[in-house]
């Protein structure tokens, strides 16, 4: 089991490493794609775990601060959910996470979508495992941006292939261990705090790992990861890669392909 807390407890970042996997400020009013009313049903066929990075928690449509519904990619993700419901007849479960400088992970889950749960980094993988074992017998997608991309990689390793992860998506992943005010050059590379065996495990324990990266934000970017099944360079910034149209088109195509596979079972 990997331990995150000991690695990051002194890394209270005071600068902006704005990572998100679903980060759209949903400021005032009701979101047109509001997932907070969804109640999970047993044996849904798809689970999305979407993990924001540092300083990714924002105010949501209900005015709650530090909310995963305030993630930047909440809008494209919720549109994907709507599309899967309308075209494929699938209502995916979801787990959305975000965190700020204190590394407290704020989480919402589709079995209790109005309740924001606070946990530390070490608690994330066990909660995902418990949720998947309780509610899921289908396909699992895990995706994360910036610090959330690094956390997504760590979560897969911590799950230790007890949960089958069909697709792993890392969006410009930045290591919370490598990147800090005292180690700014660690903010310009893919995570280096994983062993070769760990990186190989990510390949072995996931159906497909796609790593998206960019270099236009010169002071904050990731890189290609040779072990990933696929590396895609996006010509956007670190702050725009999580909502890039090409990224979400790829995720949508994979989700729909899995939906067909579910229907054919």
Keywords:
globular; Rossmann fold; 265 residues; single chain; 8 strands; alpha/beta; disordered N terminus
What would your notes on this structure say?
- The chain is an alpha/beta fold.
- The protein has a single domain (37-264), classed as Rossmann fold (3-Layer(aba) Sandwich), CATH 3.40.50.
- The chain is built from six helices and eight strands.
- The chain has an eight-stranded mixed beta sheet with strand order 4-3-2-1-5-6-7-8, sandwiched between helices.
- The chain is globular and about 45 Å long.
- 48% of the residues are buried.
In short:
The protein is α/β, with parallel strands linked by helices. It is built from six helices and eight strands; from the N terminus they run αβαβββαβαβαββα.
């Amino acid at each position: 089991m990997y331990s995150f807390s000991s690695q990051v407890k002194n890394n209270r970042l005071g600068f902006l490493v704005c990572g998100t996997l679903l980060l759209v400020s949903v400021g005032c009013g009701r979101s047109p794609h509001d997932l907070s009313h969804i109640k999970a049903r047993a044996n849904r066929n798809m689970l999305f775990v979407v993990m924001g990075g540092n300083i990714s928690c924002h105010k949501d449509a209900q005015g709650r601060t530090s909310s995963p519904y305030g993630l930047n990619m909440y809008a494209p993700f919720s549109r994907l959910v709507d599309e899967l419901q309308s075209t494929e007849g699938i209502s995916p479960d979801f787990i959305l996470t975000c965190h700020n400088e204190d590394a407290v992970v704020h989480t919402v889950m589709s079995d209790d979508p109005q309740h924001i749960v606070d946990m530390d980094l070490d608690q994330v993988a066990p909660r995902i495992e418990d949720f998947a074992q309780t509610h899921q017998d289908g396909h699992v997608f895990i995706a994360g941006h910036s610090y959330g991309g690094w956390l997504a990689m760590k979560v897969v390793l911590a799950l230790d292939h007890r949960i089958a992860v069909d697709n792993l998506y890392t969006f410009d992943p930045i290591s919370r261990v490598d990147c800090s005010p005292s180690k700014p050059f660690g903010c310009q590379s893919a995570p280096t705090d994983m062993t070769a065996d760990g990186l190989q495990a990510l390949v072995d324990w996931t159906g497909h790992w796609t790593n998206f990266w960019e270099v236009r934000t010169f002071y904050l970017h990731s890189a290609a990861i040779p072990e990933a099944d696929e590396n895609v360079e996006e010509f956007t910034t670190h702050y725009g890669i999580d909502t890039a149209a090409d990224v979400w088109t790829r995720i949508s195509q994979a989700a729909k392909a899995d939906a067909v596979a579910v229907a054919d079972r």
